[in-house]
Design goal:
mainly alpha
Length: 348
């Protein structure tokens, strides 16, 4: 599974009918009780994040106009990353089984606290889950700036063509802009016909940024406020990228026309990251990416047990199951980026 390219070139199309293998896995997972809600876990987790946010705001107010605020900016970048993970779990109904409380929580956390549109992100993320690493259907691998396959590299023009030549080296520097990119695309999406509540979402976004920029420039001098924003947004973007990039980047891409059942489509394009309790907390359970894609509504604390069941089941079927460490996952992703960008460097 190291440095894969296109799935159609690597794995044969399965012979079984769609859903049959997944149904058996789903039965085993259900019998183990891994899909039931975990209200205590989420109460403790979300409570801890709320306390961390309140503590960061309190420290900001107490320190006043000081360069020490850059440490607060770094700490709040981690808190914002955890808020992003909380919004993710709410969107997948891991916390609440009903749509209304999930959506209300998602709007408050994503729009109001993070400055990111819940509706826009939900639409984008749902399409990703349906077709992970699909060249044409997964918005997370669209060649907006980076190219994710040699086919995309051969068609790249403008900025993707320029960046694609050295995208492995530029990957982490570009992540420093990811937080700003999420906010920019959130405002842009307010005019999209797919946005269900543009006025509500837009209002919450505006409130977020009025409080964010208003608080910064009310307490800090302009220079310190700009430095705070730079540190906070850059580290927030890197944190998000460090959580989401290991999950699929560098795993096989799916060509248009490739036929795979649900189980294989999710397992073969996803990568798990091992590492124990620290990695579980750092990545909010998304280190169990294979299990999360197979059972998106499964609560985070159940994913570890589901991983054991799923890996054993994949071994029974002969389906490759990829799991590695955090640093190794990034090496694989960067190696893939360098590999698919090679045609652009050769053309130059």
């Amino acid at each position: 599974m190291t440095n894969p390219t296109m799935l159609a070139e690597t794995f044969p199309t399965p012979r079984r009918e769609t859903g049959s293998d997944f149904s058996e896995l789903s039965r085993r997972i259900s019998e183990a009780g891994l899909l039931r809600r975990r209200p205590l876990y989420y109460s403790v987790r979300f409570g801890a994040v709320a306390l961390a946010l309140a503590g960061g705001v309190a420290a900001f107010v107490v320190l006043g106009d000081s360069w020490s605020q850059l440490f607060v900016a770094a700490a709040l970048a981690v808190v914002f990353g955890q808020l992003g993970l909380a919004a993710h779990d709410l969107a997948h109904r891991q916390v609440f089984s009903r749509r209304r409380p999930s959506e209300t929580g998602g709007l408050l956390v994503a729009n109001l606290l993070l400055g990111m549109s819940y509706g826009w992100w939900m639409n984008k993320h749902t399409r990703h889950h349906a077709n992970p690493n699909h060249e044409e259907k997964d918005p997370d691998v669209s060649p907006d700036i980076l190219v994710w396959s040699r086919r995309q590299a051969s068609r790249a023009k403008g900025l993707p063509r320029f960046v694609g030549k050295h995208q492995a080296a530029l990957f982490f520097p570009l992540l420093t802009l990811e937080g700003l990119n999420l906010s920019f695309n959130s405002f842009k999406a307010l005019r999209s016909p797919s946005m269900k509540r543009p006025v509500l979402e837009g209002t919450l976004l505006v409130v977020h940024f009025v409080l964010y920029f208003g608080g910064l420039f009310a307490v800090l001098s302009p220079g310190k406020a700009l430095a705070f924003i730079a540190v906070h947004q850059a580290l927030f973007g890197v944190y998000l990228g460090s959580v989401f990039a290991p999950n699929h980047k560098g795993m096989p891409m799916i060509e248009e026309g490739t036929r795979l059942d649900f189980l294989r489509r999710q397992v073969l394009t996803s990568r798990n990251v091992r590492g124990g309790a620290f990695i579980d907390a750092f990545m909010g359970g998304l280190n169990y990416q294979i299990e999360h894609h197979l059972f998106p509504s499964m609560p985070t604390p159940a994913l570890g047990r589901a991983q054991v069941i799923t890996e054993r089941y994949c071994a029974e079927l002969g389906v490759p199951y990829h799991q590695t460490g955090l640093l190794a996952s990034h090496r694989e992703a960067l190696r893939h980026l360098r590999n698919v960008g090679e045609p652009l460097r050769d053309a130059h």
